[in-house]
Amino acid sequence: MDTTWYLVLSALLFAVGAGGVLVRRNPLVILLCLELMLNSANLALLAFGRNLGNADAQVFAMIVMVVAACEVVVGLGLIVAMYRRRVPLDVDENRGLRG
Amino acid sequence: MLSWIVFIPVVVGLIGFLLPARVVGWWALLGSLVSLGLAIALVAGFDAAGGALQDVVDRSWIPQLGVRYQLGVDGLSLFLVLLTSVLWAATVLWSALQHPDRPRNYFFMLGLAQTATLGAFLAQDLLLFVLFFDLMLIPFYFLIGQWGTGDRIRATIKMIIYTLIGSLLMLVAAIATAVLSADAVGQVTFSIETLRQFPLPAGSQYWIFAFFSLAFLIKMPAFLVHGWIVDAYKACPLPVLALLSGVLSKVAAYGFLRIVMPVLPDAAIHFQDVLLIIALASILYGSAMAFTHPDIRLIAAYSSVAQMGFITLGIFSLSSTGGDGSVIQMVNHGLVIAPVFLIVAIIAERSGTEDIREMGGMARHAPVLAALFIIVTMALLAIPGSANFVGEYFILQGVFETKVAIAVVASVGIALAAFYALRMYQQTMHDREAAAGVSREIAFREAIVLVPLVACIVALALYPGLITSRGTDAVDRSLAAVSTDASPPPEALAEGGWTGYGPPLETAEAPR
Amino acid sequence: MRTGGCADEAEPGQRAAGSFGDAGVSVTTWGWLVLAFPLAGTVLIGLLFRVLPAKAAGAIGTLAIAAAFACSIGALVAMLGHPADERAFADTLYDYAGAAGVPFDLGIYVDQLSVFMAVVVSGVSMLIHLYSYAYMGSDAGYRRFFSYMNFFVFSMLLLVLAGNYLLLIVGWAFVGFASYALISFWYRRETATRAGMEAFVINVVGDIGLVLAAILLIKEIGAIDFGSVFERAPDAFTTNEWTIVAICLLLLVGAFAKSAQIPLHTWLPDAMEGPTPVSALIHAATMVTAGVYLIARSYPLFDLAPTAADVAAFIGLATLLMAATIALVVTDLKRIIAYSTISQIGYMVVGVSIGAYSAGLFHLMTHAFFKALLFMAAGSVIAAMAAIQDIDRMRGFRRAMPFTSATLICGALALAGFPGTSGFFSKDEILTFAAERGGMYWIFAIGGYLGAILTAVYAFRIVFRVVYGEPCREAEELEGGHLAHAEPANPATGEAEDTAVGFPGPEHHIAEREWPMKVAMAVLAFGALFGGLIQIPGVTDVLESFLEPVFAASPIASAVHVSTTDAYVGMLVGGLCSLLGIGAAFYLYMVAPGATLRLRDRFPGLHRFLVNRWYFDELIDAVVYRPVVACGRFAYATFERVVVDGLTRGASDGVSGLGAVVKTAQSGFVRFYALLVIAGLAGLGLYFLLAAS
Fold it and tell me: CA angle B431-B435-B440, nearest 5°?
């Protein structure tokens, strides 16, 4: 199969993820969409790796997955903490960093 | 040796965090006395001849950037180091007896400030100098911001922003100097000694000079860019103010002699008139402000502007006589203005105000205080016979040799100084007692700080040659590129034979 | 500070002082000792002021000055052991502040002139200290007073013994400081502190003149010690070259400020706020004559700048006449004598400026005697009046205070130049020299004789109004044995005095009851009457032959020689002037007591002009003080707020403003940030795509 299709899929996934990050206000969904974007990148990496016959891409993908796992741990932890403190689960409401 | 001198204060300050709050003041005093002892040893072991750097420390520090850890002392910085140590010891003693809040922080900040100041005086690497120069700001920011009075937050922010502008320009100028001269040198280096051997082309010197000068003039402060002192001096705790005015301003004047003159000689010659005019304006404007302002603190502050004007005048006379005058005057002024601020602290405490119009008659029950104050006042107005007079005289002599008109106008500043200094003394000490004030004799805890400082003033008045004889060669060296007469004076300028204390003069012709 | 002098005495390379060991103590050692004693007195009294009993401070002070006087005599005797033209000795203690191009040594220069000055200064000071020992007896600041007085004497001796111009300036400024401290001695009086400040600031103006002169000297000659300067000056300058004229004029600024000559004289009458012994010592006998000393000392320079010397002479003449006219109308006893001092210094300045050096110095000496005496007598009278100084209130003290009256008359006779008294010989010597020099200098002779008439009038105005006439209330009480007391009040303003500090004390001391005052006044009266006998033309000529070698190099002094006949003609004229003036005073104040009032009514404008002291105070106020203060006010009220603070605020506001702009981007919307990131990425990708295609 041509590498192009993988890349098209990856681009679509990325666009879906990015759109989700931009339009959704629930931090949980935003986190999901972020994962989607990361994995789209993984897909692109692997596709290129296979096309070039290079195994380095798989190493990169592994690292990205580890990072993603870490991120989920921290992110979910924060969201749970927010929920417990009855902070509204809406990123537009939480604007404490406004300058 | 020099590294010890520089870093003992901050180390002492750090150790102070581990000690009980009661004793931390005395611990800091011990530290400052040790560094004072080291400074005295430095002066004692100093070799006056030649004007070269001594006790040099030279280590690689950031090799990628060509920054070296270079310290060294010569006749320019020798007595400034001693002055720093003396004034810090006095301030620490004064503060230890006053028991400030949060003593650990306070004394750590004092120690850090001393380290930064001494580092700036001893650094022989341009970037190291800039680093120490900027480091000085941090402890003073906290000292004014936390222990100050009145509208201290606004004052500190104003001070920091204003002086930081200068500092950043200086950083740019320092980097530019090193980078632009890298081709000639063969590598990027910040060593002042190396840079002076490879002067930049005149065009680059001009703007670099402008940046350096702006930084130094703001710090000094000089006319037109002295705006920050009003708020900062009003807010500053008085013992810290003694340091701010007594030592920090000298770092700026010292910078001119240490960096600008050797490294940027063409620019110094080119801009001589501009700087002389600024200095002259500082003298006249500072004096005029000092004798109209009703706030005693600001009278002293503006007198400082005027005195720094004299020092700048001497440096930019570009003659070795004027340079000698500036070197001794830096020490003198620091040694005089610090007791002035301490006396202001005493007076302000007794009269409950800092408005000079509401004071008076303080001498009545305080003859010792009055006597100390009159000595300091006389030194401040540079009465002949004081070391300050020697400084001002040399400065005027140096300026006179090239710019007669400026010297004559500057001498007006001496008369104005007599007026404002005496006004400050008379309105506080003489006349009827003010309604609110109390005339109380100087207390032991005040006297133990003031008396040694006044003794230093008197001692220096008896033998100002202590400084001039050690400074003169270094000044010649610093001014070698800009001055026409920095070489040793012709022998005719030495003492004539007629009075019987010099070798007889072979030719009776006067040098013209 | 200079007490260690004797140890360094045997400096190698001394020209003369080291060359004789057999005469015992050398001249310069005596010189250092002269300085050491008063300084030791100052320091001792100053440091021990809490423990010393009051009278002990006075005794220490007086003895220290007596020792200085003895050492001056010692120097004089040691000097007389040398041949007449080898009597100049220099010695240096250490290099005070030598640096590039400025030789600054702590050295003294002892020659006939400085020994003469040292003897006069320390001698008169000793007597005035003795007088003060009793006169200041009940003052709360007794110890402080003697500490200051000793410091003054030290400074004055430093001034006259200094070996170079810079050290002279040091002494010069120190006497200025001592004068300030003593004028504002009663520091609770606002008039006194203000007068002190005025005196100090005007003296600093003079200091600046001297400093600039010294700078020019170093620049042009490269030396600052008297020996080298005078040796090299004739080669370095041509006559009346602008530099040497400038140097001399700058020296004159210093001399005029110190010696109260026009236009820098206004401080001296105000300086009378100080205690009377201070007026006698500093503001009559010694300090104010420093300008005369300076001109005489720098005579080789003035010989090269005749223009400057003529300027000095004319100013001296103008001052002489102006002050004499003011002295005719002022009613404050001390201020009359103060204006008389200004006028007499005018004579001396004329003398040393036209080349009559030894005559000018002779007048300096006799003036020190009779003027100190007049002030002492005035102090005694003021004490008897319970601190009232207005001569309108005084009358008829001759029976109540016979001794004071007698000495007052002695002083007035000498001041008026009554034939045979000291003032007669010294004044005439100056004026005959002027006449002998001829040409333009006749003006000085004529003006001087005119001044002599005025002098005699105002001198005897004091005598006739204070000593003679019907006794006033205080004099009557005193005849009954009771010394007047009054509520303490400031004599200048009349406001009530604070009696704790800064007040002469509740008791008054008059010469009739205090032996130290009597002794001091008797000695000075003797000097005032007979001091002139050392210098009778053609008979004794002691002083002139002693000082002659100093001024031997002067072309004027050697060219003009007053013959004995001419001298006697001059003395005849001077004696007639004096008698004329005394006679006029006798007529005005004794024969026709209302005459002065009628004169005043006839010439109200003139009277107002004189009473207001020629409006000099107002002039200085308008020309100098007000503009300077106005500049300061402008700087304070407008410039500082608008320009300087604007600059500071501009800088700090600029930085904060920049921050505010950047701050608005920080909206806090996470999704907005994300949009920015993605838009940025997209933009970047687009850019590369476009760049690649």
Answer: 70
